[in-house]
Design a protein that fits this description.
This protein is an alpha+beta fold and 749 residues long. The chain is built from 13 helices and 42 strands.
């Protein structure tokens, strides 16, 4: 299929030379052949007008992908017959100072190049990637016509005619290593092997991608514990309040190697990480991630994504700041689980300014593997992931290092789109980079993996502020329609509630808002609100649960009062952020369902004992990892400080369930009614919504003496008939539901 397309493109190109521009010359590896006005040396492309007339380049496109022909559009620019235009393939996507820069760069031996015309809706020229070594170019031997050849001295902006060409003696090859990446107790010598003796192996030990400037392999490489050596990257300032590690950190050896032939890569490059330490197999009771990439892509002043740099780099979200990398994942005992090339980028908002950042990794088909094929999270049956996040722990307001982690885990049994998570240890460029939380990402691939929706358009809406509403995927039309409907409906009307029930997943919304309220999220609702829906008439809006760093620090906070009160003077959050839930609570059926569901969860998922048990579990899981982490990052200050913060989380958990129950009762009253009252020989306890537990009923005289006791299970309409047989008088009925006590006075006649 691809070969047929290329043949078609070549014939189309030859037929079109007389009336279209031509890709006259391409330099895939530019070191010295041409410099931009900024003094840099990006790859470059030369466009030529073979005549006979002037060509306006507006309406033509360049791309390195045949399935994305409109990748970069030429601006308004006239090329006279016989003239040349230089375009830098710098990935900068700009036109300034008289220079044009595409939104992509070129990879030697990998990227074909395509010139597309929107007027004829067809490719008018293409260049098939082949070996053109550094500071050589691939171009038309005679300007604007075939054949093409490799020039030893490129001619950017000048005629190719008469330029020296060469034939590259290129031999494809393979590469293998004597040891696989993993954990080793003792040092060893690593051997590298290739098949063709005419080629050479080059390797690096500093994580740079190897090429013909790297170390020439001529003898085995000694692999040992590098920890006593000074760090290379841990001493780089990476954010606000950064502090240098107090001692040399644990280090691995990362070797990156490739076979070169004729100045071009003749094999896929290999990246392997080796940990050498006697106790390595018992050092980390969690997954170990090794992330390796060109150091300048992390820490370079111009484009390094992990530093502030010259351009506020770490805050940039454009594709230019998505970097090629290699990830390896090891089990706690050193078995290699994953080793593949990926795309990486920084994740987050405010956390981008912190020393330890969150990094996303994307599996892509162009690297040979579409997914990360492993079941990382025991609470989900998913065994492959398109995207994952290595979430830094600097955003944890509670400084337990697992605040967000535990909230998602506690929410895993609810009707809610939570992010599965597990603690891991990360090595970046072979150096210890601390505890991270491996995490799902709330995007369309999450929806595919968790809901099986693969062939529909998904609208994913983020609301991060009054002026910051945007679509992560799809568009805002359906969401704006939802808001318009809510604005016009009288939600006290049952017909209106039925209409909304067809648009919003009611059970999901209730569990979502309960979770936010229980954890007392200080970074919600004015931020971190994201919901999604497939674009069809049968689907409903659902909320994503994410970003619980700022929780469990206000055990007495009453967010319920803000939601049920119409007096804007009591609102802490902006009006837009409260609108949807406030509107839903106007309906008595929704309010009762919310109330009874909250009580149920306070007796189960969010019961004091269950939350304390989960904190204990996380404390034991993280404790072996904390000491090394605080030496690296000084966050928290030391292990005792970490233990103090964990104890503060436990104190919050001891208070929160009781506090919420009191707030619910103060806001909504008892979750039932007793009738008839006055009664004679019986009365009925009717709950406002379905309950999922038995109830204990005690009746006391006005003197406080117990006169009746029974255990009852509500019937299908959530009511219980109590035949008490009491004499006339005033009594107090005590109802125990989900571990909470409620009292109501009755009169017996």
């Amino acid at each position: 299929m691809k070969a047929g397309l290329l043949v078609f493109l070549l014939f189309a190109s030859m037929a079109a030379f007389s009336q279209n521009p031509v890709i006259n010359e391409v330099c895939y590896v530019n070191r010295l052949s041409l410099t931009s006005i900024e003094g840099k040396s990006p790859d470059w492309i030369e466009i030529y007008n073979p005549g006979p007339g002037t060509i306006n380049m507006n309406g033509f496109y360049l791309s390195d992908k045949s399935d994305n022909p409109l990748k970069w559009r030429f601006p308004e620019y006239l090329i006279e017959p016989g003239s040349f235009l230089i375009v830098f393939a710098s990935d900068d996507d700009k036109v300034e100072n008289g220079e044009m820069h595409t939104n992509f760069s070129l990879s030697l031996m990998e990227d074909n190049l395509y010139l597309f015309s929107s007027s004829t809706w067809s490719f008018v020229d293409s260049v098939v990637a082949e070996c053109a070594p550094a500071d050589h170019s691939l171009g038309c031997i005679a300007d604007g016509s075939f054949p093409r050849g490799v020039f030893t001295a490129p001619t950017p902006g000048r005629s190719n005619t008469g330029a020296d060409t060469t034939i590259i003696d290129f031999h494809p090859d393979s590469l293998s290593l004597s040891h696989i990446g993993g954990f080793y107790e003792d040092p060893f010598y690593l051997q590298l092997f290739n098949s063709n003796s005419e080629n050479s192996i080059y390797y690096t030990l500093d994580c740079n991608e190897p090429d013909d400037r790297a170390n020439l392999y001529d003898s085995p490489v000694y692999i040992y514990d590098r920890s006593p050596e000074p760090f290379s990257y841990s001493g780089i300032e990476t954010g606000l309040n950064w502090k240098e590690p107090t001692s040399n950190m644990f280090k691995a050896s990362v070797i990156r190697a490739v076979v070169m032939s004729g100045g071009c890569p003749a094999s896929p490059s290999i990246t392997c990480t080796f940990f050498v330490n006697k106790e390595m197999k018992s050092r980390y009771p969690v997954y170990v991630f090794s992330l390796s990439m060109n150091p300048k892509d992390l820490f370079g002043n111009d484009e390094g994504m992990y530093v502030y740099g010259n351009n506020e780099n770490c805050f940039k979200k454009s594709k230019k700041y998505e970097k090629d990398a290699h990830v390896e994942v090891f089990s706690p005992t050193g078995e290699i689980i994953i080793s593949q090339n990926v795309t990486s980028k920084i994740q987050g908002r405010g956390s981008r300014s912190r020393p330890q950042k969150s990094v996303r990794i994307y599996a892509k088909e162009k690297y040979g593997t579409d997914y990360f094929n492993h079941a990382f999270f025991p609470d989900k049956s998913i065994d492959r992931y398109k995207r994952l996040a290595l979430r830094g722990v600097f955003g944890d307001h509670g400084r337990t290092l697992f605040t967000d982690d535990i909230c998602h885990t506690l929410s895993s049994g609810l009707n809610i789109d939570y992010m599965a998570t597990t603690p891991v240890v990360v090595f970046l460029e072979g150096e210890y980079w601390g505890i991270h939380n491996l995490r799902e990402i709330n995007d369309r691939y999450y929806i595919e993996a968790n809901h099986g929706i693969t062939d529909e358009i998904i609208d994913i809406i983020s609301h991060e502020g009054i002026d910051y509403l945007f679509a992560d995927d799809g568009n805002l039309d359906s969401y704006n329609e939802l808001i318009s409907i809510l604005e016009t409906l009288d939600m006290s009307d049952s017909a209106s509630y039925s209409q909304i029930n067809e648009i919003i997943d009611i059970d999901n919304s209730i569990d979502f808002f309960i979770t936010q309220i229980y954890f007392s999220n200080t970074d919600f609702p004015a931020a971190n609100s994201k919901l999604w829906k497939p674009r069809n008439d049968n689907s409903k809006w659902r909320w994503f649960l994410f970003d619980f760093d700022a929780v469990m620090v206000r055990p007495n906070f009453n967010q319920i009062f803000e939601y049920i009160n119409d007096d804007r003077s009591v609102d802490i959050s902006p009006e837009w952020s409260l609108f949807v839930f406030k509107k839903l609570l106007k309906n008595s059926a929704y309010k009762n369902k919310f109330y009874l569901r909250f009580l149920q969860l306070l007796g189960s998922t969010f019961s004091t004992q269950n939350v304390l048990n989960k904190i204990d579990e996380f404390e034991k899981k993280y404790e072996p990892l904390v000491a090394e982490h605080v030496v690296r990052w000084h966050y928290p200050a030391d292990v005792n400080t970490w233990k103090y913060h964990v104890s503060q989380m436990k104190n919050a958990a001891l208070q929160r369930a009781h506090e919420i129950a009191e707030q619910l009762n103060a806001s909504f009253g008892n979750p039932f009614i007793i009738c008839p009252n006055p009664s004679s020989v019986f009365f009925t306890v009717s709950f406002f919504d379905k309950i999922y537990d038995y109830c204990r009923i005690k009746i006391y005289s006005v003197k406080g003496e117990p006169v009746f006791y029974g255990v009852f299970t509500p019937d299908d309409d959530s009511s219980m008939r109590i035949e008490h047989g009491l004499g006339p008088g005033i009594y107090i009925v005590e109802v125990e539901l989900y571990g909470r006590l409620y009292h109501e006075r009755i009169i017996v006649v």
